[in-house]
Amino acid sequence: MPILRLVLVLAVALVAGCSxxxxxxxxxxxxxxxxxxxxxxPESEILAELYGQALRGRGxxxxxxxxxxxxxxxxxxxxxxxxxxxxxxxxxxxxxxAGDRAASADANLNGLRDRxxxxxxxxxAMPSRRVTAAALETGEIDVGMIETxxxxxxxxxxxxxxxxxxxxxxxxxxxxVRRQVVDAxxxxxxxxxDAVSVQLTTAELSGLNRQVVVDDQPPSAVAAxxxxxxxVT
Length: 233
Hints:
9 helices; alpha/beta; disordered N terminus; 12% strand; D-Maltodextrin-Binding Protein, domain 2; 233 residues; three-stranded mixed β-sheet
């Protein structure tokens, strides 16, 4: 299933202070530097490299900030104008921006009980998707939540269940862009981002994750290779 073509435009006011983000260098106000940031996990870093390198290849001044932090760090940085573009996930970011910032995996286990009528002996918190996959394979746990593009699923004998009762929100990949950048560059910038999104399917993203997580290749090199095979015109 192809990943949705969509750019969310975030209109924000510039306010002071946010830790960890670099101060922007002096720049031409007609061509402001575009700071593309990622969350602190491999898939987000890959996506930031894809969008950032695509923009840079079309002549835009781009600064990439890898693994800036969790959503609680990245979203305020976006709102404060410290970063300009963030590859996001549609369902989660809309929930976060709507104010439901305390959603947790425990709520999804409650959802399995309420919507599917399942009862569980206990809930165990897992430190990563890789640990979750390993625990499923050994029988330590019976049900676990892993995203469909996660490299932990590679070459594992696991059954992926269909979300036929729509428990999970749609998590299409969407580049969130600050209004100031869109106003400065116009639809030409949108077209570059869309040209990446329209070619990036779930299967393609799974393959990129495997190259980084399983094959231990740098996200920047993996993204560059994908862009060579999928030119942005």
